[in-house]
Amino acid sequence: MTELKNDRFLRALLREPVDRTPVWMMRQAGRYLPEYRATRQQAGSFLDLCKNRELACEVTMQPLRRYPMDAAILFSDILTVPDAMGLGLYFEEGEGPRFRKTVRSEADLAALHSISAKDDLGYVMDAVSTIRHELNGKVPLIGFSGSPWTLATYMVEGGSSKDFSRIKTMAYDQPELMHGLLSLLADAVADYLSAQVEAGAQALQIFDTWGGALSAAGYKEFSLKYMQRILSRLPSEADGRKLPVIVFTKGGGQWLSSIADCGAQAVGIDWTTDIGSARALVGDRVALQGNMDPMMLFASPERIRAEVASILSGFGHGTGHVFNLGHGITPGVNPDHVTAFVDAVAEFSPQYHQQD
To answer: Which of 32, 36, 154, 352 is catalytic?
Structure first.
C-alpha cells in the first residue's frame, strides 16, 4: 500500500495536530478550469465523463496540478444513485439535472430498482480505484454521496426546485411514503459509500445540499435521522486508520449542535455561519470545514487574502479546521484567484498551529 505523503487533511478531520490548516474546494474539478472544459468536450456529455474512469481521473487530478490542495475528491455526481434505481438521469442545457421518471406514489416507490453499489455503480468504483492509483499517495481521496433527503428532492420534484412543494407535500401529507423512500435511499447510500471506501476512498463527505430547506423539526425527522442511519453503517477504518466522515448541510448553521452529535467526525458549514461561533458551540466534538463565501473568489486577490486571514483568525489556534468554501466554486471564477486563495491559507495558517 502506497504511503500517504500528505495526511494533514485526515489529521485535521480527526482533530490531530497539523503544521498548517489543510485546504481543498468543493467542486474543485469543474468548469472554472479551461482544462476541465476541454476534457468535458472530449467526453461528449457530463454523464459520459462521470462514467469514463480515465477521464474522471483526469479531471480529478487537474486542480492538483495547478494548486497545492490537501485532498482530492472523486469526480462524479450525487444523482448516480437514483439514476441506478431506474429514474433516467439526464442534463438539460441551462436547467441542470432532470429525471425521466419521478417518485410520487407507493407504486413509484415499489418500481424503484434495488441496487448493489458494486454492480450497478461499478463505474464509480472503477473511477475511485483509478484515481487512487494515480494519486500515488500524494494526498487523500474523498468519496461522497448526496444525503437521502437531498437525493429524494430530485427524485420527487423531477429535478431542481425553488420551493420543494412536491416533496414537502409528501413529507407532511404522506409521511409513511416519505420515510419509505428515505429508508431505501439511506441503505443504498450506506452501501455506496462503503463500496467507495473498499475501492480506495480515504475520507467521505455527505452532501445534504437541501437540508436547509426544511423546518427545524422537519430537518431532524427527514434529513438528520437518515444521515445518522448511514453513519452507523459505514466502516470505521480505511487503510488501517480511522475513516473520517464530513456531513455538510447547506443552510444548516442553526442546527449545528445537533449535527455535531450525529456521529460524523467533521461538520461542514456554509458562509452564513460565523466560524468562531461555530467552534465555540461544537467545542471538541467535531472538526469544522469551511467556510469562505464562494463569491469572494470574484473579488481581487488582495480581498481574497484578507478574507482568508479573517476566517483563520475567527477559528483561532489549534487543529480541527479544514479550510474550504461555504459551497462549491462557481463557473466564471478566474483560476488565478484560486491560487491567491490556496496560497493565502498556506501562508497565514501555520501561526495558528505552533502550539499543537
So the answer is: 154
